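Write out this protein's structure.
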Amino acid sequence: MAMLTVAVGILIDDGGRVLITRREKSAHQGGLWEFPGGKVEPSESIAEALSRELQEELGVLVEAAEPFMVIDHDYGDKQVRLDVYHVTRWQGEAQGLEGQPLAWKLPVELIGWPFPAANTPILERLLAH
């Protein structure tokens, strides 16, 4: 089974709230909340995929991002590598351009929210800060 590489962006506003979006019901892990991003295409770098995905999904232009963590997770039916970046500067106001709900929440407010299992290490690291 091939590993699917996903570029993930952690956007944190001036109030310490992090941006999350809800996956489309028909998608893998559908209906769960996640950190925005998407699949890295074969011809793209992680940074290029992150910029493209955040612009397509949210209308946000990434100006600066730094590596946050890498997570390999096996769902049984799919293996994913989440290449997670902390987006430190961006232009634009995030909107659900693909009709997806989004929310800005403090990390502590996310305890108990339904996230894919691969997102657990991200949540743990955000809560530790």
